[in-house]
TrEMBL record:
Keywords: Membrane, Transmembrane, Transmembrane helix. Signal peptide: none annotated. The keyword Transmembrane helix applies. The keyword Membrane applies. It comes from the Bacteria. This is Cation/H+ exchanger domain-containing protein. It comes from Saccharothrix mutabilis subsp. mutabilis. The lineage of its organism: Bacteria, Bacillati, Actinomycetota, Actinomycetes, Pseudonocardiales. The chain crosses the membrane at residues 40-58, 70-96, 102-122, 143-163, 169-187, 207-234, 246-264, 271-290, 310-338.
Length: 375
């Protein structure tokens, strides 16, 4: 997990993501596809990519670590999100004094689960740190969706934004739980039969079909929380294959972001929004990991802000009431560039940086130099 080529990979990935964004912009420009974001196929595609990211992220969670640190996870996806929204909006308001920018703050306050899943293999976080970041990125999405809908009603009077086309948020949550519960019932039933010696490849195929059907329903109805829940129990195959799939999905999702940019870019506001989002994660993660247990992971979690398809989806939701995509799309690029640069510097910077960020294994703790008093 701690390959020495993490730094070069970070720079290569950054260049690749920028190339994917540029390719999306060029394709949209060449084919005059300025209305592609309104096409049902586009919405289904980005929902499918995001859903796979949620599944891949929670599938990689160490369940024992998750149970041990569930309190920190809960604080991260509730108080952490609210703190980040407040900090991001504070920066935007200081520059522009526009109350509706609160919605932009909400849209980038979450961490992109697809990016987290794609980069897990090269992460230098401990298993506890990976679990916290994966769970944080997977379960903060419903919070930001809820905030987007209700704060829209308060700030610009747009209380009729669609939430997956399924009505109220309460109904949406129940449908997510029902979809995940149906898959769990199929998986649990066949797992019990396997334990009794009655399992078969056909049974495993039935579970796979159930999961794929749930994926289609989730992507078409925006019931993406169900896929995050499914990732907590349905874990076939090798993790390396899922990581590679998440990497491919990350580039496809970045290409989809490039398609949005053809409609125009508010670069100045986007840069301010991206920098504010990244710094808000530094503050929130530092506060949530103040305990000594997180000493070795604290800096990397603080530098863990990534944005992607979740922010784009929320931007598209806001488009009827606010030109959000023109600001959020460049902000996504800025955040991911900051993530790559700061993590590369942290992992491969001067010796004094490395000495401050050694992974804490429970036994090796940086010691203060002893002061020798003259006799």
């Amino acid at each position: 997990m701690q390959g020495a080529d993490c730094g070069p990979r970070a720079w290569t990935r950054s260049i690749g993501l920028l190339a994917a964004v540029a390719a999306g912009w060029l394709v949209a420009r060449a084919f005059d596809a300025d209305g592609v974001t309104a096409h049902p196929g586009y919405l289904f595609a980005i929902n499918a990519l995001l859903g796979f990211g949620l599944y891949a992220s929670t599938r990689g969670i160490d369940l024992a670590e998750f149970r041990e640190h569930w309190g920190t996870v809960l604080a991260a996806v509730t108080l952490g999100v609210l703190l980040k929204v407040a900090l991001i909006f504070g920066v935007l308001f200081a520059f522009y004094e526009r109350p509706e920018h609160l919605l932009l703050a909400v849209a980038v306050a979450q961490i992109d689960p697809l990016s987290v899943a794609a980069l897990r293999a090269g992460s230098r976080l401990s298993e506890a740190g990976k679990t916290l970041l994966a769970a944080w990125s997977s379960f903060d999405d419903p919070i930001t969706v809820l905030l987007t809908v209700y704060l829209t009603a308060l700030t610009v009077g747009g209380g009729t934004l669609p939430v997956g086309g399924v009505g109220s948020l309460g109904v949406n949550l129940l449908l997510n739980l029902a979809l995940a519960g149906a898959v769990f019932a199929v998986w649990r039933g066949l797992r019990g039969r396997r334990a009794a010696g009655a399992g078969s490849p056909a049974g495993r195929a039935v579970v796979l079909v159930a999961v794929l059907a749930a994926g289609v329903v989730a992507a078409s109805s925006s019931l993406l929380l169900a896929l995050a829940l499914i990732g907590l129990f349905y874990r076939p195959g090798r993790s390396a294959d899922v990581d590679r799939g998440a990497g491919v999905a990350l580039y496809l999702g970045t290409f989809a972001i490039g398609l949005v940019l053809v409609n125009g870019i508010d670069l100045g506001t986007g840069v301010v929004l991206g920098v504010a989002a990244f710094l808000a994660q530094v503050v929130a993660a530092s506060a949530l990991t103040a305990r000594p247990r997180w000493r070795g992971d604290r800096v990397r979690l603080a530098l863990g802000q990534q944005n992607g398809l979740t922010a784009v989806i929320l931007a598209l939701m806001l488009e009827p009431v606010l030109p959000a995509a023109a600001v959020i799309a460049p902000a996504v690029v800025v955040v991911n560039l900051l993530h790559a640069v700061t993590n590369a510097v942290h992992d491969h910077g001067p010796a004094w940086v490395a000495s401050r960020s050694r992974k804490w294994d429970g036994t090796t703790i940086p010691r203060r130099p002893e002061i020798v008093h003259p006799s």
